[in-house]
Inverse folding.
């Protein structure tokens, strides 16, 4: 049967099911198929922290959203066009996000009275007309999968578990996705269990065939490849891009990479990934706790490694004292904080950007550190390189603020050529840098705190360098010699110098990039981190509606780009959307730009553990623009 | 010089502790290890004696001075690195073992020493200490135990005796102390020893054994704080009492002590150690010290002999066994991964391959 193929420019699909239903895997596979087809895409995995929450319950629902298009897109999308609901809990948890008319594919086998009651449905929504507004496709996914797998030497439970592949096959047919990658993937994944492998392949194929033959779907869809800049592309998640960025930084700096880490959601994948790359000389150390993780990294930095510690917010709190030591020792250290919803344990698998003030101020005494933040999953690669550049150039701990959304979300990445990556070559101190009496003929001596006049960085003199034996520590040091000093004037000088060193970074970061296509905007939206996509998509919507808005997004949060105050000053309104509340100060970035530039930043704050929706932000921006117009009229 | 760095008899011909550390080119003296910094411990502090012992012991190792690193935490003892003319880091409270682990694991060419105290190592840094011992990183940890908090002016420490009256415990402390040797043995330590600040010769011999050990070596050094806990170890120092109080452990020798060597230990029917009169029990019945016993029970039993009064306090090497060393294993994994690609370090092409992965597509 030949079916009509309809062209679409973009689609948002959400796979939702029980934690044990394999929805993340299904979403990953569909994403890979979509990436290899050449669409632009953006994904949002959303899963519970519990490994196996009670089956069939609302807290146990795991979802994966994918937005793909024939043009460049910036977010995983607000509202799914298609929801695949593997059970009543998945339907209940997600139905509110659908627009009328959306396609709803449900696994009818799971809609038993027991399962319905478990999530509070009085009747069966598939039968009581409550889903009339949607295009409902009730499909007996489980029983059709089991039926298709008759004859395989596997248990009924094993057959049932393959239902996600049936669903993937169906969706792959519906959107004309290439299937070779998934076939290869299943062959590899289940290489050691041939029956299971064949069963999954069969389920996948059965799902595809079902799509072709059923009358429930009268058309299939096609989303043409996107016209992206030419190059070699792959799909990449934030944590993977960040790990690759660190390996690349190691090679470009010529320093061996050392990662000290303690497992914590959502940062653990960085530890997992880097532990695979020993052939690149990467040492990974799973420490006994967060403090040891950063301690070991600092020790490795002292020894001349490119040292990294990766964590999330609670871990950053534990590392604070050691980061302060790093500030005092003036050693390069990269601290990766993959932020999650807090306070305390908060919601480990949900995203938030509420650690900015902790990164800025969360240490005793004055211990300033540069802070950088990636804007998208792929941007984690470049930001990791930038963190390494700042840390090694200025001999200072750098905090990199990623978040759960970037960590697990993915997008196509144009793979850079290695020779185009920045040169991060580092010079260790090799010989004494002064004489005892200061004269040319005096005995040579090494002063560990004699600084480079431009960067204010002190020499990086690693153990094993003859003639440079010296002692450093967390006690205040005398300028130049590094000896213990309690001298009031010296302490004042050292505190100011450590600040000046961080401030000096601003001279090497690019000016603020403002996107304002018509150059007429009166409102600028300022953001940082993972809100780049939603803000950008919202700005596009506002412009499409004929209004003007400017967008600027910060990679450097400390120090700010040198021109930021002047840039913000050009606009009548500065709107700062953030996934934090700002402790009653209107947002964490808002607080900083207000304090620094006396700009009346307007915060728009949300802490729901989810990224902003473009639609909602577009509304906020429009209101902000209209407010000025209203004032003009008054 | 070469023998002591080629591994000791019991470590199966593996790496000696210092075999990867470059040697000094010229002859060294204690003076080479002294810095120009004024030593700021209280006059009469036991730390002076330990510093002098270490400074005069280091030249015997014959290591390039620049390849020696002392890392410390916080406390009186932790000022130590400032006085050693090697590389050194005075870090933060309790964290020295963690910092030293990162350094030792990434730099096999260094001889890394941790200097810590009873509060630093056993209270705030207890977790790092036990995990360093468990991992068996190539570190030498010198634990100066004075059974008191000195730098914060006299609070009880985790090795203070129960009921200790201090500034923070005017009616006596309520928590039982750690026995650092027992703790280290329980944490799977491969080398555990004890010595005393005032016994230069013994201390030096223990330091020597620790330096030769590949893996983590813990040396507990009884150290007198003459300001806040003076005479804490007096029975072990007073010529009148020391021979009756101190058990000097020597590998392969029967365990006996006393002015006349009249005390010894035997195993009773329950295999527990029992103190006996040597003449009555017979010399051939005495337990012979085996520092290289695979099973740590022997060393643990010895660590429990000491009484609160310090009577029957063993000093010397309790345990020195060969066990896989964390940083060696880590290096082997790296080497094996490199060997899999022909032994060469990963280059630009490898990085390009890593970044591209296996699923790429091209946009023209």
């Amino acid at each position: 049967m030949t079916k009509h193929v309809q062209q679409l420019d973009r689609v948002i699909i959400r796979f939702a099911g029980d934690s044990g239903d394999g929805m993340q895997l299904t979403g990953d596979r569909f994403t890979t198929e979509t990436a290899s087809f050449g669409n632009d895409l953006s994904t949002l995995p959303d899963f519970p922290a519990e490994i196996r929450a009670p089956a069939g319950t609302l807290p146990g629902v795991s979802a994966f959203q994918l937005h793909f298009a024939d043009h460049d897109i910036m977010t995983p999308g607000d509202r799914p066009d298609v929801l695949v609901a593997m059970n009543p809990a998945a339907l209940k948890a997600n139905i509110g996000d659908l627009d009328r008319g959306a396609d709803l594919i449900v696994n009818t086998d799971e809609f038993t009275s027991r399962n319905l009651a478990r999530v509070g449905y009085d009747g069966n929504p598939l039968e009581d007309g409550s889903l009339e507004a949607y295009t409902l496709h009730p499909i007996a996914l489980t029983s059709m999968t089991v039926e298709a797998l008759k004859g395989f030497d596997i248990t009924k439970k094993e057959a049932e578990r393959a239902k996600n592949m049936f669903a993937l096959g169906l969706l792959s047919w519906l959107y004309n996705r290439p299937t070779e990658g998934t076939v290869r993937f299943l062959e590899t994944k289940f290489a050691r269990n041939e029956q299971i492998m064949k069963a999954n392949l069969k389920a996948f194929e059965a799902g595809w065939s079902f799509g072709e033959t059923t009358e429930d779907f009268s058309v299939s869809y096609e989303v043409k490849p996107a016209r992206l800049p030419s190059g070699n592309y792959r799909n990449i998640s934030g944590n993977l891009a960040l790990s690759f960025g660190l390996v690349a930084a190691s090679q470009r700096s010529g320093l061996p990479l050392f990662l000290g880490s303690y497992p914590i959601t959502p940062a653990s994948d960085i530890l997992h990934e880097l532990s695979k790359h020993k052939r690149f000389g990467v040492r990974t150390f799973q420490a006994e706790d967060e403090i040891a993780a950063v301690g070991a990294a600092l020790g490795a930095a002292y020894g001349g490694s490119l040292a990294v510690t990766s964590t999330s917010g609670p871990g950053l709190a534990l590392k604070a004292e050691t980061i302060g030591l790093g500030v005092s020792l003036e050693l390069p250290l990269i601290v990766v904080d993959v932020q999650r919803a807090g306070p305390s344990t908060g919601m480990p698998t949900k995203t938030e950007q509420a650690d900015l003030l902790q990164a800025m101020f969360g240490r005793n005494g004055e211990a300033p550190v540069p802070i950088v933040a990636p804007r998208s999953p792929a941007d984690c690669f470049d930001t990791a390189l930038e963190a390494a550049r700042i840390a090694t150039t200025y001999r200072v701990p750098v905090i990199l603020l990623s978040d759960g959304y970037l960590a697990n979300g993915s997008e196509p990445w144009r793979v850079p050529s290695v020779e185009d990556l920045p040169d991060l070559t580092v010079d260790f101190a090799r010989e004494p840098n002064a004489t005892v009496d200061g004269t040319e003929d005096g005995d040579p001596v090494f002063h560990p705190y004699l600084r480079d006049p431009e960067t204010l960085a002190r020499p990086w003199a690693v153990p094993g360098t003859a003639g440079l034996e010296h002692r450093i520590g967390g006690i205040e040091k005398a300028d130049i010699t590094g000896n213990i000093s309690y001298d009031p004037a010296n302490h004042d000088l050292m505190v100011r110098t450590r600040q000046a060193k961080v401030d000096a970074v601003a001279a090497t970061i690019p000016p603020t990039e403002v996107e304002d296509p018509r150059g007429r905007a009166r409102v600028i939206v300022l953001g940082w981190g993972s809100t780049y996509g939603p803000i950008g998509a919202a700005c596009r919507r506002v412009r499409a509606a004929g209004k003007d808005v400017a967008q600027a997004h910060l990679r450097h949060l400390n120090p700010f780009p040198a021109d930021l105050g002047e840039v913000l000053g050009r606009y009548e309104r500065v709107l700062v959307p953030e996934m934090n509340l700002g402790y009653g100060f209107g947002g964490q970035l808002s607080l900083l730009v207000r304090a620094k530039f006396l700009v009346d930043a307007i915060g728009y704050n949300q802490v729901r553990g989810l990224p902003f929706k473009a639609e909602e932000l577009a509304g906020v921006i429009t209101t902000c623009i209209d407010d000025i117009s209203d004032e003009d009229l008054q | 010089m070469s023998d002591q760095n080629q591994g000791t008899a019991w470590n199966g011909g593996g790496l000696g502790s210092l075999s990867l550390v470059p040697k000094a080119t010229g002859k060294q003296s204690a003076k080479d290890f002294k810095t120009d910094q004024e030593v700021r411990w209280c006059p009469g502090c036991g730390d002076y004696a330990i510093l002098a012992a270490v400074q005069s012991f280091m030249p015997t190792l014959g290591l390039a001075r620049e390849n020696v690193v002392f890392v410390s935490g916080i406390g009186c003892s932790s000022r130590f690195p400032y006085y050693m003319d090697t590389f050194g880091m005075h870090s933060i409270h309790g964290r020295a073992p963690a910092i030293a682990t990162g350094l030792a694991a990434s730099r096999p060419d260094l001889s890394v020493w941790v200097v810590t105290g009873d509060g630093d190592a056993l209270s705030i840094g207890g977790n790092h200490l036990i995990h360093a011992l468990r991992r068996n990183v190539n570190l030498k940890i010198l634990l100066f135990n004075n059974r008191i908090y000195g730098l914060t002016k006299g609070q009880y420490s985790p090795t203070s005796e129960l009921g200790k009256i201090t500034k923070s415990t005017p009616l006596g402390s309520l928590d039982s102390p750690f026995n650092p040797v027992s703790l280290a043995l329980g944490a799977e330590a491969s080398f555990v020893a004890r010595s005393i600040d005032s016994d230069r010769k013994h201390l030096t011999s223990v330091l020597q054994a620790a330096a030769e050990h590949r893996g983590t070596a813990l040396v507990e050094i009884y150290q007198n704080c003459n300001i806040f806990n003076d005479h804490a170890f007096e029975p072990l120092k007073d010529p009148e009492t020391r021979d009756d109080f101190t058990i000097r452990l020597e590998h392969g020798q029967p365990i006996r002590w006393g002015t006349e060597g009249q005390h010894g230990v035997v195993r009773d029917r329950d295999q527990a150690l029992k103190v006996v009169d040597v003449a009555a029990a017979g010399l051939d019945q005495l337990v012979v010290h085996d520092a290289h016993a695979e099973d740590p029970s022997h060393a643990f039993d010895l660590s429990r002999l000491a009484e609160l009064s310090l009577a029957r306090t063993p000093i010397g090497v309790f345990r020195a066994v060969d066990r896989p060393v964390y940083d060696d294993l880590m290096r082997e994994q790296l080497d094996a991964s490199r060997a899999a690609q022909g032994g060469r370090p990963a280059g630009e092409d490898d990085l390009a391959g890593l970044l591209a992965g296996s699923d790429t597509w091209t946009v023209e």
Chain B touches chain A through 63 residues (CB under 8 Å). DSSP finds twelve helices and twelve strands in chain B. The first strand of chain B starts at residue 68 and ends at 72. The radius of gyration of chain B is 23 Å.
